[in-house]
Amino acid sequence: MIGTQTFQWTRYSSNGGRRVPSTKLPLENADLMTLFEAARWAPSSYNAQPWRFVYALRETASWTRFLDLLNPFNRSWAENAAAIIFIISDSLIQPTADVEPMPSHSHSFDAGAAWALLALPGHPTWATHPLHGGRGLRRAH
User: What is the number of domains present in the chain?
Assistant: First the structure.
């Protein structure tokens, strides 16, 4: 029999009028790397892993720049987080070295799988929540 881990499923909902509490606790680099390691194991088309994570920790030089990429609603509660992580996915795939890159129809699905595996280990201890609604994302390049 395969063992299972029990998760207590709760979800923050912006529609409920609740806010993520501001703990102001730092996120240790080792803990963050544990989340990235979990995401690394996500399946992807051709095992291409078309995602990249970029992040800023509170009290670092990149923090304000990352906050500025969020829309005002998301920024209002993300500014209380210990880290902001963006997932970027490559819309092109090169299955083998002898083939030219071509459009990937699964890159966002693959990146979503990586997000899920990143969020699950953090769930018992941290409020992990996906955001959508950045602004000026082209400026992020």
Answer: 1
